[in-house]
Amino acid sequence: MSKETILDARGLLCPLPVLKARKALKPMPVGAQLRVQTDDPAALIDMPHFCAEAGHTLLEHVETDGHQEFLVQKGP
Q1: Lowest CB count within 10 Å: 1, 7, 57, 70, which one?
Q2: Which of 12, 14, 19, 32 is catalytic?
Q3: Known catalytic residue at 14
Q4: pLDDT digits (tens, 9 = 90+) for 61-73
Q5: 60 - beta bridge partners?
Q6: Cis link prior to 15 (omega < 30° from 0)?
Q7: Neighbouring residues of 71: CB distance < 8 A, sequence distance ≥ 6
Q8: Can you give the pTM of this predicted structure?
């Protein structure tokens, strides 16, 4: 099972959570998982769009403790 990396982007507004996710994913190997924590309402639209455009897989989206978490698997 892949170990996931956690990116805490809470308190950051669009487009920063996506930009930080892109930067975090870049050095990671294909198949690695990144859990992005954010409280930016725009992330509901931005993260799925980013994953689709960049070739990553959005494995999970959950709302917890007043923020959202997106589990992204790095694509090729």
Answers
A1: 1
A2: 14
A3: yes
A4: 999 888 999 999 9
A5: 71
A6: yes
A7: 4, 33, 34, 35, 36, 58, 59, 60, 61
A8: 0.93
